[in-house]
Design goal:
heterodimer; A: about 230 residues; mainly alpha; Cytochrome Bc1 Complex, Chain D, domain 2; 2 domains; globular; B: about 280 residues; 11 helices
């Protein structure tokens, strides 16, 4: 029966691959398909947060900060509930990070506030003495690139069917509206104004009122949403 | 020959001798086979370019191991893996459970020194990023915890807006006496009480009088909150620390997030004891 396989090394190799891959397929694929679904309550990033996420990536926050709380008591005591796969469902790419020079940020929105972030990013040692984090003062003057963030949101909405403009939790309301660029921008400006006021910095409030969102405001919106 | 009295050494020696004898015996057998052995047995039908192969039954040990593996595989597939699979979360849950049990039994009756030590540790990790390592609130960025009230304006804000000034959730901290209505006093009266309270219940006779008529029914005549029925206005006692940690707070300085579920009861008491020790 297998004499035929012994005479055809190519099909023999294919057979070997199928046999070996089978165990992996039945153990990995069904679990992965289930675990990678969004957890209940997971929502895609709104425009301001997505812009903040791009700032986070642009300034390589993920080089020093992880976003993955492992299920160890020492970690959950400090950072909160351990991370679940489905929480990253709308992260493209996910920002687990590989190294903690600074603390984990996956649930930083639970225990830090807008004004704290503003103080900290302006001068880290003013709130955390001995911190080796550099100051990010340029974020207070750089203007957020909302166009790119909108392009990303629209792309994932159309290509990956990310549920923007949809009722996710079934309460009859649209959970994360996106709409046209102008609509999304107006919404982002409203959210940004609230955060700018929370930081108690007049320069940020004025910039937002003039229709420009400083990068720091978008970044704080993103960090506050990490829960 | 003292070392021979040790039975592990005896066993090792016996083992070495057995290996030596077996090696020599097996080697001798194969040498003999190479010298004298002749090919025998029945050839299989297939041959490859004239090279044939004898029919060989598979060895019994090998066959048993093969069948045994199949049986084990079926068992592992249906019973072994589904019922005994390792779970990282399961291990985490057990770790937390055993740690909590140990923690609770160890700190069932903590002394004052224990509480202060634990409180300082918790404070440095959880509270100091906003309130500062010395708890003075980093130049007004957060509440100065070495004093009960930082300023008159803080008291005034609460008198004017009621406990809604604390923001969270729905404007109260979950005290038994419920919410404080806005505008119990106004104008100069409010100023007088605010000065009196912010000064640590000293001076200002008019403020003292007004406090007794307007505030004492809930906060108590001494302003200590009647054993946790309402917020203690003199010091950070256990109930007020616990309530603020549970509910968070939104005062005129800014927002404090809730720390619900992050600290145990003992840790909350420890933080309260540590904070009280700062103003002593």
């Amino acid at each position: 029966m297998f004499g035929w396989l012994e005479r055809n090394p190519f099909f023999f190799a294919v057979g070997v691959f199928v046999v070996i891959a089978f165990a992996g397929l039945i153990e990995i694929v069904p679990d992965f398909a289930q675990q990678s679904r969004p957890v209940a309550g997971a929502k895609p990033y709104d425009l301001l947060r997505l812009a903040g996420r791009q700032v986070y990536i642009k300034d390589s926050c993920n080089a020093c900060h992880s976003q993955l709380i492992r299920p160890f008591k020492i970690e959950t005591d400090r950072y909160g509930m351990y991370s679940l796969n489905g929480e990253y469902a709308y992260d493209r790419p996910f920002l687990w990070g590989s190294k903690r020079t600074g603390p984990d940020l996956h649930r930083v929105g639970n225990y830090r506030t807008s004004d704290w972030h503003a103080n900290h990013m302006w001068d880290p040692t003013s709130v955390v003495p001995g911190s080796i984090m550099p100051a990010y003062k340029h974020m207070f003057t750089n203007v957020t690139d909302l166009e790119t963030a909108y392009a990303e949101a629209l792309t994932v909405k159309k290509v990956f069917n990310v549920p923007y403009d949809k009722d996710i939790d079934g309460d009859g309301k649209i959970d994360v509206p996106l709409g046209s660029f102008e609509e999304a921008k107006q919404r982002a400006l409203q959210d940004a104004l609230k955060i700018a006021q929370e930081t108690k910095r007049k320069d940020l409030v004025e910039m937002v009122k003039a229709g420009k969102i400083p990068e720091i405001v978008a970044l704080i919106a993103y960090l506050n949403g990490l829960k | 020959m003292n070392w021979l009295s040790d039975n592990v050494n005896q066993l090792a020696l016996l083992g070495a001798a057995a290996i030596l004898i077996l090696t020599i015996g097996v080697a001798a057998k194969y040498f003999k086979q190479i010298k004298e052995g002749k090919s025998e047995g029945e050839l299989k039908e297939e041959n490859w370019d004239g090279i044939g192969e004898y029919k060989n039954n598979s060895p019994i040990g090998w066959s048993l191991a093969f069948i045994g593996t199949i049986i084990w595989g079926v068992w592992y597939w249906l019973v072994g893996y589904p019922l005994n699979a390792y779970s990282q979360i399961g291990e985490y849950n057990e770790e937390v459970k055993s740690y909590q049990a140990k923690f609770e039994s160890k700190w069932a009756n903590p002394s004052k020194e224990d509480l202060l030590g634990m409180g300082e540790g918790v404070f440095l990790v959880q509270c100091s990023p906003c309130h500062g390592i010395d708890a003075t609130g980093i130049e007004g960025k957060a509440q100065d915890l070495t004093r009960r009230f930082v300023s008159k304006s803080q008291v005034l804000d609460v008198i004017k807006r009621g406990s809604a000034a604390l923001g969270n959730p729905n404007g109260q901290l979950g005290y038994q006496l419920g919410m404080m209505p806005p505008g119990l006093l106004s104008g100069a009266d409010a100023e007088a009480v605010a000065t009196y309270v912010a000064n640590g219940f000293k001076g200002n006779n008019k403020g003292a009088e007004l406090f007794q008529s307007a505030c004492a029914s809930c906060h108590g005549p001494d302003g200590r909150g009647m054993n946790g029925m309402a917020p203690n206005l003199r010091e950070y006692d256990d109930p007020i620390i616990s309530h603020v940690l549970q509910h968070g707070k939104q005062g005129i300085i800014g927002i404090m997030p809730s720390f619900k579920g992050r600290l145990t009861k003992v840790q909350e008491r420890a933080v309260a004891a540590y904070i009280r020790s700062l103003s002593e």
